[in-house]
Amino acid sequence: MSVLWGVSFDATPLSGVVVEFIKVAKIFHSRGYRVHLDLGYDIKADKNSFFRPYTDEAALLPDWVRLDRVEGIDTVPGYDAAVVEAVLREVVQQGDGERWRPAVASLTGCLSDRILATWERLGVSLVVVENGTLPENIAYTQALYQAIEEYGRRHRLGRFVLWRDHDLMWQSEPSAAKYGAFPYAHTPKPRDSLFIHYAALHHEALRRTVAWAPDLRNIDVLPNTFAHRPARVDERGTAFRRDHGIPDQVPLIARFTRIIPQKRIDRDIHLLAALADRTDAHLFIAGDPAEAPAEHAALVALAEALKVGDRVVFGGRLAPHERDVGRCAGGGYSVRDLLAHADVASFMTSRDYESYGNPIGEAIASRVPYVTTRYDLYDAVYASKGFRAPVLDTRAHDLPAGVFLDEVAELLTDEGRRMRTAEHNYRLGERHLGRAQAEGLLDRLFLTPMADRTRMSVVVPVYNEAGSLPTTLEALYHQRGPEGLLERSLYEVVLVDNNSTDDTAAAVRRFAADHPDLAIHLLTEPEQGVSCARRTGMEFASTRSRGRGVRDDGRFYLVSADADCRVAPDWLWQLYTAMESGKAAIGVCDYTYAPEHFAHRPRLWEVISRTLRCRAVTFALFGGFPDGKGFAVDRDVHDAVGGIEVFYQLRDGQFVNHLSDDWDFGIKVRNSGEDIVYAPLSRVEINPRRVDHALDEVITGRAYGSDGVIVMRDIRAQRSAVDQGRDLTEAEAREAWAFSVKDFVPKNTVLPVLLSPSLLEDHGVAEFFGRSLAQRLACRVEEVKDEMRMIDFAPIHSYKTPSYRLYFEFADEIFARLRATVGEDVGHPPPLPACLRDVPPERFAEFVRYYCEDRESGEAHNYFGNGGVF
Question: What CATH code would you report for 449-686?
Fold first, then answer.
């Protein structure tokens, strides 16, 4: 049986951290894992549990969780609570580490040995670390890292550790500087290990973690998740109000949290008192009064002083939201029973204490509205996603007052508003906090290992493609080789949902359920943009392929496809064969349109087909550059150059990601010295809507922006009746060809030799240009590089200026060669910009440089257009 070892740095029998561990472990348990949990008593010293034997803690947990701890940890010489507290104080907080360095090193080695022995005894196959980056115990943290490296190498496990953080130094009481100050020089940083996949609770935590540990590559967002089902009074819970002395008809405010000063439960009591003249609401406080007896006594006294003591119920510790987590005090009731009776849930915590706010998520998932303070990460986790609630800004008011008070009163007394708010949050919560996100990530990373024979991952970014996805997936499912259908273990499909608002995700899940013999994975990418989605998919596929515990002698390929385009039946096999035989780093497909879509549009089809003929010639000579519609890259090369890079531009005062990630990536690969191969038999049919969606803009070279800004736009928009199916006029056809060829020539004939001047020595390339032109191009490339002080031409914007310059200087000769090889209908270069027409010949190259480098006007970008959509 597979064995999961969980270790919590929280050192409490039941907490939000432990509950979230149980939610994750339950998924693995359902797949046959035996689950062991170390509560961390022997890690964290401030909970007064160091080396304390377990007693009744198991009653708080599901019966499938086995409480465990590292065997023999209490025999490590010099390891006890006093030493752990002293190291935290003197090393982490005060930065005085020299005195403790030898002791910490000795403890690290001994602890690592004990951890390894325990894992070996149990046959551990998966480790889940909860809150490990909170530096309560640096010796144990370093020992855990050391044990992971040794155990992973010993058993060749791949990424067998999920390391998840709930609190980090900048999230857990930062004003007290409990863990020092950024960059936390005396704290073990997260290690970029081959055996660990990190998980942050939200994108702000991920951003801060990567800023602290910039070499960290394997990290995802795994939010606290919740089973979304409205809380309803069941048969057992009907007596809840009666058992706690709460009248049936009064509004009920629910507060379920630890009863400690940092949680600021006093605010709820003040809220109740301030609402006394508007409602007879009651307050139920669920938490263990014995954890901080002085705080409990102070709250009871406060309620009496504010004359609401008879309406405040201290209900004891309830079982968590999940019924299978166990039973606590409070008459055997759970948080879910409380929420079934509550009108509003409250979470008015300290500003710098709570990193996430589980009670808010549990209220949302139960379809109960909530009120809260604007604690440090509230906006990042909830408000930024659109959740609605009265929010107390404690920088203006420490206690409930003003508008906040009015909004809470309205929420308690207006049932319609309560229902609307709860429903809005519930639907939003299903998307952002639902179990599907966690299950999907865990399934991809741990539960469904990649087959030993899998050689390709096909990455497909998707955005509102529910209508076209079934056709796309059918084409991928029925891929063929020379002897029939491809063996489906040879490849898998990775779809990256980029914030779709339609049934895209449901369509993927339906197809996957109906076709279990093909591995289909669904990821989410919250940052909008096809570039971001493609990067996420590629990185995931690379990580997954490397995580296999098998010897990987062959090459592994990351393949890109678009959801709205149609791949040929042998598309994948032809691409795979070209990559295997040519040993190139990137394989580029052939892109086509179906002529029947343009049967009644001869002028438009002529322009498109002319462009495709030019492409066929130059791709065969130079290899071409990848297009997201279809290409493959060797995984090792992808990782070596840093993967897909997303560039940003300003549009209307806002940063937007650049659309050219595929071209940028190809430029990076070619600039690194790797080859690109053209696979003409691997065909992708382009969706004609890419031309039709804005025909006027296509004709004038503005389909994806202007002034150098190239961004994605929604091409699913309804075409106007005028443009739908119309052909071009003769004048429009000339204009469309001019922009198409002006885009094509710099990118497909000039750019390859800029990046790889040695191409000009190739026989076929030299024959295409002619010896004289090839030699002069080679000389001019070196002159331009030196003149511009360029080291390389890696990013797309770095190549534009020199490519444009060389285009103007050699246009007549290059077009002559295209006419000779493609056909006379290629014609001559389009007219020069007006500003260059009267420049004296002897100064032409000089003014071309000024024109192409003029970043202020963007004239050169507009002259060449922003990408040929043909």
Answer: 3.90.550.10
